[in-house]
Amino acid sequence: MTNFPDSTYMTEMPKLPTVEEELEMEKAVREILEIDDINEVKRWAESFIRQNYEQSNFIVTCLDKIHFLQAKLACVEHRVVQPRKSWWQRLFF
After folding, report:
1. DSSP state string for 23-80
2. Which end of the chain is more exposed for a tag (fewer CB within 10 A), N or C?
């Protein structure tokens, strides 16, 4: 039976915010809701979208690297030796 790398970190990674973090977020949201200038709101929205895009790309890159390293580790731990080709297979293929 093959043991695949443990990927439970995907469900364990998100941590709940502290009360202080939630209050800080709520304060920032209320600050934005109090803005009367639509152009300033647009600048905030643009900034948030750009930051979200960058953070999403960073997270995807990190997860890809984690998966690559887990696959590499699995290959090292469970070495698969390819059968040697016969002389005629090496000659023609």
Report:
1. HHHHHHHHHHHT---HHHHHHHHHHHHHHHHHHHHHHHHHHHHHHHHHHHHHHHHT--
2. N
